[in-house]
Each structure stands twice: as structure tokens, then as C-alpha cells.
Amino acid sequence: MGDPHVGGEPAPASPGRAALEVSPLPGRCGIRARGEISETTRPYWEEALSRLAGQHSGVSYLELSDVAFVDVAGVTALAVTALGLPEGRVVVEHPPPHLPRVLEMFWPSLPQIEVTPR
What we know:
Strand content: 25-35%
Pfam family, one: STAS
Oligomer: single chain
Domain STAS: 18-78
Region (Disordered): 1-20
Shape: globular
InterPro entries: STAS_dom, STAS_dom_sf
Order of helices and strands: EEHEHEHE
Helix content: 25-40%
Protein name: STAS domain-containing protein
């Protein structure tokens, strides 16, 4: 992946601001994210989702066990990405507890996203 932020380096963060690190999942189509997805880091999140959609073939994985927070716009970017896939689904593994609630609130019964518990 060409962008250093998507290749495992954290997105730039000012002191006291959130950072986001996104790296490929070994052995399967997907990404692992660490940090927070908020206004500061959302461009890197959206770019990572775009790259993931470009590589998608049936099932893509998002491993989020090391993500502390995803704002509503970050969840929206995930939902929009999943809705734009030609087929298959995105499996969200170990998300922060609020992410499934936000999905259910704004996108109930979205078959393109499967969430596994934390």
C-alpha cells in the first residue's frame, strides 16, 4: 500500500490528539486498525476503506480490537463502503462496543456488514 499511514505508520497527530494506524491483515483480505477514528484521523480511515473495497472479493475483514473509538462519521464511512461493494460482505471483528449500536441505529439490517463480538 503506497500511503505510509495505510502501511502501518500512524496518521499524524498533534499532542493530545488521536492517532490511527492501519495495516493489512496477513493471509486474508482485510485491515487491522489501532487507535481512534475521529475527525482528525477520518481521512486515513476513509482511504483505508477505499483501498479495501478495491481489493474486495467476496469477504473482507476489519480487525478493530485495538480501536478505542469510532465516531458516527467513521461508522458512516464503513456503511457507505459496504453498501458500495458489488457483492459479499465486510466482517467487522472485535469492534468498540458502541460501533454495533450505531450501525443498528442508523443502518438496521444492513446485510453487507457482519459484526463479531468484542
